[in-house]
């Protein structure tokens, strides 16, 4: 055991020296939240919490009266054994109806949903095409999949990401990948429709906040796979609640429900709950019940989790989330304009247009509550903000590709304009302070390469 700890410790030490050591932290309640995924601020809504508590109390009383077999704790096992219930199936029908899908299947998380779906559905000989920026859960599902090929395509080829943003890779775009897949003798099975192709994208990407050009994805798939053997999977974990009417998501916002084969949604972000779901056909749902290992071999959600989710969907169905959605959209626009103005001021203060910029943001109008601030010193900037009462997180390699390090701002409906203004002011103060330090080091050590020599170039 001591020898193994030594080996593991050495591995951790190497990661620490590379500046990539991950550690668990606890967010202080005094800090203003610009980090969590609670985009609609539903998790902090006390009225919702009281409604959930009232329903849980009703359940406890029903258990005491012998009217129900199980209380609010535990679930009894997996869905295939003793963990299923009429309530769970009714909730799935409600969720499917809300999102315009034929059927729904609940999972313990969106991670489990992605893994289970990709692990079991693609058959030997099938192909999976995936955005190079796709979530780790999709990568895990593909690793377990029987698909014969897994091919990445360039993230920027099908998102609204600024073309000037840091390059996320050197893969070919989606159309080029599709074209290559249908070429020559090897592409014959794809052209004839006997080989299935699964295309995996996200609605909103968690690291850069970009939104998929989903209509373009659909057009490309129909163009190159006219035999209808192309199946689009959209991970809407970050877009449900944020996009679409009443927060139904990107697919619903674009009216593409009949064009998308499967949608994976997560409830632990804008919906302020927990768990995940696959929206799909009845046949696909039945197949997942039989073959998705992340459903079959895990304990199902407890009543307390189901009732929380049910209460939140009732809230959305009643239109109560619309005001929060509008507030969030206004805040996104305000924050983006402030950041653009800040970067313009910092660029104007630079000695020349070729000077390195300490911070940079995408120039394309932000469409989501996730706004990255690119910098080669993300830990320093995040620490500076945290020390001044703002919770933001540094995002570094390997979570994002080396050279695209950033601090991620996550906005919430209940953040105020004043809080945003103060955060942007704090970021600008950091940038000016770092510039002064860099200049002083350069003056005292002529010809020395300072710690900021590789900062991202300004293109504003």
UniProtKB/TrEMBL annotation:
One of its GO terms (molecular function) is pyridoxal phosphate binding. Its cofactor is pyridoxal 5'-phosphate. InterPro entries: Aminotransferase_I/II_large, AON_synthase_class-II, PyrdxlP-dep_Trfase, PyrdxlP-dep_Trfase_major, PyrdxlP-dep_Trfase_small. Gene3D superfamilies: Aspartate Aminotransferase, domain 1, Type I PLP-dependent aspartate aminotransferase-like (Major domain). Residues 30-426 form the Aminotransferase class I/classII large domain. It comes from the Eukaryota. The keyword Transferase applies. Keywords: Pyridoxal phosphate, Transferase. One of its GO terms (biological process) is biotin biosynthetic process. Belongs to the class-II pyridoxal-phosphate-dependent aminotransferase family. BioF subfamily. This is Aminotransferase class I/classII large domain-containing protein.
